[in-house]
Design brief:
alpha+beta; Serine Threonine Protein Phosphatase 5, Tetratricopeptide repeat; Lipocalin
């Protein structure tokens, strides 16, 4: 028993001894990251150099030092540090982007473009940096930059490159919705989201009803899918395509609590006066015919 306790005590002491350097390293890493985030560039460089004394092949540390050096105007040193970051296997797309920023500052525009092109080939995804960093302001009007920008954007937002994802754009906007007799029944807000991959509907009825839908293009089927859920307990799931200026879909409607699933179809039609007609129909099994479920006209209040 005494021997068992002694072994446990020894193991506990060893664990504490091993944890101490780890805790110290984590503390230094936090100090380095905090300094970097607070834009204390000189302090960040110093803290990351301390970390590198025990971990020379940490590519992120080298990259952070290079970024801090660029912020301090030490561009030649930053380029040298980036090569050390490359050896330490830092993310190469970001390395090339950083090289491009330094080359622009050093008025080496051609070298900057070469680095940007290399970054794109390495599947760069930092669209916000291409959009926002000051160094690239002098490059943005160049066709080479625009090609790189479009390539990166397509990588992040692939739906934008599919022509069919614009089929529902005519429905985007804020609309007043009226019945065929002109009665205003509510307002519908239609937005395009998720990098152009989805069209989101938010319905607010005049009587307090609400509902929402998500519409999206399914490439494997070459069709759109529209899924609606409303406060009245109706769940609509239909699919189709745009034909002759109208989006036409078919599928089902299910009523919550009624254990009822019926055939359903809908259409959205652009009208010459700028309005959109939304016609939904439900199949009446007993009568064997289609019956109007909703027939409304959208008048634009605010465009997209």
């Amino acid at each position: 028993m005494i021997r068992t306790i002694s072994i446990c005590l020894i193991l506990a002491m060893l664990a504490r001894t091993m944890d101490a350097p780890l805790a110290q390293e984590m503390g230094v890493a936090s100090a380095a990251n905090n300094a970097f985030e607070e834009r204390l560039w000189a302090q960040a460089i110093n803290e990351y150099q301390i970390l590198l004394s025990n971990d020379r092949l940490n590519g992120i540390y080298w990259l952070r030092i290079a970024q801090a050096q660029r912020e301090l105007g030490q561009n030649a040193s930053a380029l040298e540090t980036l090569e050390r970051a490359r050896v330490a296997q830092a993310p190469e797309a970001m390395l090339e982007l950083e090289r491009a920023r330094n080359f622009v500052i050093l008025n080496q525009v051609e070298m900057a473009f070469q680095a940007l092109q290399a970054s794109d080939k390495l599947e760069l995804r930092s669209l916000s940096l291409l959009d926002g960093v000051e160094e690239f302001s002098r490059l943005r009007s160049d066709n080479r930059f625009q090609l790189i920008y479009r390539s990166v954007r397509q990588r992040i937002y692939p739906c934008e490159a599919i022509p069919s994802t614009t089929d529902f754009d005519f429905w985007i906007g804020i609309w007043d919705v009226r019945l065929t007799n002109g009665t205003l029944i509510g307002r519908n807000t239609i937005t395009k989201q998720d990098g152009g991959c989805s069209v989101i509907e938010k319905w607010e009825g005049g009587g307090g009803s609400s509902g929402s839908s998500t519409s999206f293009f399914v490439p494997s089927r070459d069709q759109w899918r529209h899924i609606w859920v409303g406060s009245g307990g109706a769940i609509i799931d239909i699919m189709g395509t745009r034909i002759n200026g109208a989006m036409r879909m078919e599928g089902t409607i299910e009523y919550v609590g009624l254990n009822s699933v019926l055939a359903f179809r809908g259409s959205w039609t652009e009208l010459p006066d700028g309005r959109v007609r939304q016609l939904f129909e439900e199949f009446n099994i007993g009568l064997g015919t289609w019956q109007i479920w909703f027939d409304g006209y959208y008048t634009l209040v605010q465009g997209s």
